Amino acid sequence: FRENIEFKVTENNIEQEIINFKPDIVGISSVSQNYNKAIAYAKIAKRYELPVICGGVHISMMPFSLTSDMDVGVIGEGEQTICDLLELFIRESKFVRDDLQKIKGIIYWDDDGRVTFTNKRELMYPLNKLPVPARDLFNIRPITYMFTTRGCPYRCSFCASSRFWNKVRFFSAEYTVNEIQHLVDEYNVKCIDFYDDLVSLDVNRIKEIIDLLKVKNILGKVNFSGAIRANLANDEVIGLLKKMGFKSLGMGLESGCNDTL
């Protein structure tokens, strides 16, 4: 799509960006903490009679929160779904309801004003088939983030991760190190925060990443941070993460009650 479609990413001043960029579609990604802002942005887009696609964790967990200003909600992983939606829009110049029904992993408004669900989208597998994120659309700073896994094996009631991602999947060690190298070479990144739910799920994979960082002469040139669970923080894991270049690990205090833990 990059050859035929021009993208613009913005976090603020959405109305001015709409006026300047004149998009055909507005896409909004949101978590629950900022869903009120997503609702407001959708209202702004509708003032200009633009179709609105809403994706992200909130709409995936609470699909009936889709507002009348949002034409389509993307449930779960959106890479293939957004491609299908854009193909439909390019072909029809609008979102035709009969055609929307054929696209997996979305919700939309039917003719009677009800939220309609399409068939569930299969999980992306293997993750390595995904291209690296289009970071040229962003202002990349020396401190940035990336994902090396999707999902979490734990089923904490207060967390949406296990429901959103469904199961744990890994980008390969080689893919991960190639993306790290891309960030270092192209954007002079000095620190990378892994947005994985847990960075310590596969010890052998950590060892493989360290070896590949050495081969590519990146080990020691970039620092890392990420999240870990207390029950996974043994001496071997902490030692390997330190060797890899981790300077910070976040650990959730999930409960103050021993019975709960």
TrEMBL record:
Pfam families: B12-binding, Radical_SAM. Residues 138-261 form the Radical SAM core domain. CDD domains: radical_SAM_B12_BD. The keyword S-adenosyl-L-methionine applies. GO terms for molecular function: 4 iron, 4 sulfur cluster binding; catalytic activity; cobalamin binding; metal ion binding. Its cofactor is [4Fe-4S] cluster. Keywords: Iron, Iron-sulfur, Metal-binding, S-adenosyl-L-methionine. Residues 1-96 form the B12-binding domain. InterPro entries: BchE-like, Cobalamin-bd, Methyltransferase_Class_B, rSAM, rSAM_horseshoe, rSAM_sf. PANTHER family: ANAEROBIC MAGNESIUM-PROTOPORPHYRIN IX MONOMETHYL ESTER CYCLASE-RELATED. This is Uncharacterized protein. It comes from marine sediment metagenome.
